[in-house]
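Researcher: We plan to redesign the surface later, but first we want a full-length starting point. Tokens attached.
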């Protein structure tokens, strides 16, 4: 089952301070049973939506750096290499867009 794979093999990004609570689409009250089920069925989509939410929030707050984007790139590559989910050109484009924003 995909949810078993993410629990055993999945790589994620750990956020410091209040960033997870304030920027995450799935933190505590931001999450619900439907979202959990949908995310479990589409791990790559869940990763993409989570990364987009966090990185967009950081960019909006003027705190987006290559360190943050690089952490998501590294987690994405590791998940693909471990077979947690398949390569996605859409995720690559999204992360590359944040690379450009972080360098600006």
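Model: Full-length starting sequence:
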């Amino acid at each position: 089952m995909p949810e078993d794979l993410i629990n055993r093999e999945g790589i994620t990004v750990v956020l410091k301070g209040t960033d997870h609570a304030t920027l995450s689409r799935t933190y505590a009250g931001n999450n619900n049973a439907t979202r959990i089920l949908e995310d479990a069925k589409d791990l790559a989509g869940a990763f993409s939506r989570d990364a987009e939410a966090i990185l967009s929030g950081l960019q909006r707050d003027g705190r987006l750096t290559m360190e943050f984007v690089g952490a998501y790139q590294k987690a994405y590559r590791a998940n693909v290499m471990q077979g947690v989910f398949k390569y996605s050109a859409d995720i690559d484009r999204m992360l590359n867009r944040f690379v450009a924003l972080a360098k600006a």
